[in-house]
């Protein structure tokens, strides 16, 4: 039965209903007349009643037909809606299959790249082990190359520290990078955390569209010149920076800087954070002259807001010193590092990791100027403090690693086995050599010894640094095994806070 036939049936049914309604009125009138007559005819009354019952039955059946037609129309509308949904789901399924195929291709390409990089890494490690036996001049050249200090970031609250093997920015850093001095609104927090998670995993194809969609929505609801927009611009800039898209990141940071200056004021901590991020970005591109005034302005804001003796001011001084060092402004570099040291030691104490970090950076500055004695003293100071922190005061029986190395150098002609490695083999475990700063100090002092012709002392320190690295890798493997076998207790309780704290403390030369 076609749709047109259904409509005709309903139309005819409604016409019949009208006729039946008219008949019912006539029969009611007829019954009233018969009831009022002097002589009531029972037969006629019975006939009229039966007719009334038939009329009522006809009306009921007609109403059922009309209601059934309305119900069928609703069902048809629902069917159309379901067909549309099925069609949309089929289209989405096709799109997802295409995305899955593309992702699988990318994964296969990534796995091939990882395999190739592993082979290259093994080759480089082999070449590095061979270089230690090369001529002195070659070692000196390698030392100079190792002293090329990139502009690294020392603000955990503003900018991620230099990442090993170009790994993505850790999630516990992203939140603070873009928003120092400005609290993220609750309505943005979920999206903000999603972007952080995807970016930290290197899933930029998801993080970037999320940021862009958030920016579009924010600009529609709040306008372009709003602090929330500046927050998302900062986050997107850091995602682009992790992809080495420095030009796009710089444009976004400049835009965020303009918005924050306009809405929060030129001396707000969030403005200093954006200035620092922009300065670091310029430093990565080798634009040290452009980065330096931005870093100085960030320093001025922090001094005005936090005071000249605040630890964050010292961190900004470290950044400024690194920029100046790349421009060979060594007098300014020494001044900034020494001032940062004073702040750290006064506010955080001599055992704070930032003290060792800054001492190591200052020693690097001395090396570039050829002040080898001053650099050596600072390296020894870092190692001595690490030793005293774990083993107590220095004495004849309790010696730091550099003294052991120099004694081995003195005794090498008498008996190479006279001072066995076992006497200080545990030093790298207990003296916190898994700290990148102390490990770097071991390597730097070892290279300095090698420059001086003290090869036995250099081998001692470099061997200790290599053992510390191996020990750290073994601990990671062991923790992975325990995490699977111990009823997933470690996965439930986790060490995320400790891991985050350890990452925040990591420092690079």
UniProtKB/TrEMBL annotation:
Compositionally skewed regions (Basic and acidic residues) per UniProt: 486-509
Location in or out of the cell: Cytoplasm, Cytoskeleton
Biological-process GO terms, alphabetical: microtubule-based movement
TPR repeats: 230-263, 272-305, 356-389
Molecular-function GO term, any one: kinesin binding
Pfam entry (one): TPR_12
Chain intervals for the UniProt region annotation (Disordered): 478-509
PANTHER family assigned to the protein according to its UniProt record, in alphabetical order: KINESIN LIGHT CHAIN
Family: Belongs to the kinesin light chain family.
Function according to Swiss-Prot or TrEMBL: Kinesin is a microtubule-associated force-producing protein that play a role in organelle transport.
Assembly, per entry: Oligomeric complex composed of two heavy chains and two light chains.
Protein name (database record): Kinesin light chain
The organism of origin for this protein: Anopheles coluzzii
């Amino acid at each position: 039965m076609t749709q047109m036939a259904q409509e005709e049936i309903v139309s005819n049914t409604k016409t019949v209903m009208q006729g039946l309604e008219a008949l019912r009125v006539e029969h009611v009138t007829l019954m009233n007349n018969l009831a009022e007559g002097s002589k009531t005819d029972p037969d006629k009354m019975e006939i009229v009643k039966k007719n009334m019952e038939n009329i009522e039955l006809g009306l009921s059946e007609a109403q059922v037909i009309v209601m059934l037609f309305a119900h069928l129309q609703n069902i048809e509308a629902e069917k159309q809606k379901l067909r549309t949904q099925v069609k949309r789901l089929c289209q989405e399924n096709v799109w997802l299959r295409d995305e899955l195929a593309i992702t699988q291709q990318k994964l296969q390409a990534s796995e091939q790249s990882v395999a190739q990089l592993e082979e290259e890494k093994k080759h480089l490690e082999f070449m590095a082990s061979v270089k230690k036996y090369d001529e002195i001049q070659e070692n000196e050249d390698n030392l100079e190359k190792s002293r090329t200090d990139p502009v690294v970031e020392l603000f955990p609250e503003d900018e991620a520290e230099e990442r090993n093997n170009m790994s993505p920015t850790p999630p516990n850093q992203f939140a603070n990078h873009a928003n120092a001095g400005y609290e993220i609104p609750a309505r943005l927090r979920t999206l903000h955390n999603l972007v952080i998670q995807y970016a930290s995993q290197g899933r930029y194809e998801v993080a970037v569209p999320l940021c862009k969609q958030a920016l579009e929505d924010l600009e529609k609801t709040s306008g372009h010149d709003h602090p929330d927009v500046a927050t998302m611009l900062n986050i997107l800039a850091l995602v682009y920076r992790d992809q080495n898209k420095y030009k796009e990141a710089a444009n976004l940071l400049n835009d965020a800087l303009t918005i924050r200056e306009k809405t929060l004021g030129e001396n707000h901590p969030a403005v200093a954070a954006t200035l620092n991020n922009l300065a670091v970005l310029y430093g990565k591109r080798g634009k040290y002259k452009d980065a330096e005034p931005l870093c100085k302005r960030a320093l001025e804001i922090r001094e005005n807001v936090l005071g000249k003796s605040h630890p964050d001011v010292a961190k900004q001084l470290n950044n400024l010193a690194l920029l100046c060092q790349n421009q060979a402004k060594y007098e300014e570099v020494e001044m900034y590092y020494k001032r940062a040291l004073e702040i750290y030691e006064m506010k955080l104490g001599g055992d704070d990791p930032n003290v060792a970090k800054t001492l190591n950076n200052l020693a690097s500055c001395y090396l570039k100027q050829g002040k080898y004695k001053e650099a050596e003293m600072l390296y020894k100071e870092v190692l001595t403090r690490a030793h005293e922190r774990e083993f107590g005061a220095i004495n004849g029986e309790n010696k730091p690693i550099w003294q052991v190395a120099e004694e081995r150098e003195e005794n090498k002609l008498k008996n190479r086995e006279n001072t066995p490695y076992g006497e200080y083999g545990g030093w790298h475990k207990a003296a916190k050599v898994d700290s990148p700063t102390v490990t770097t100090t071991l390597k730097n002092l070892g290279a300095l010894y090698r420059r001086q012709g003290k090869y036995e002392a250099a081998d001692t320190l470099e061997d200790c640094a290599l053992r510390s690295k191996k020990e750290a890798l073994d601990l990671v493997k062991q923790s992975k095994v325990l995490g699977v076998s111990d009823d997933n207790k470690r996965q439930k309780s986790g060490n995320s806070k400790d891991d985050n704290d350890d990452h925040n403390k990591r420092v690079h030369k």
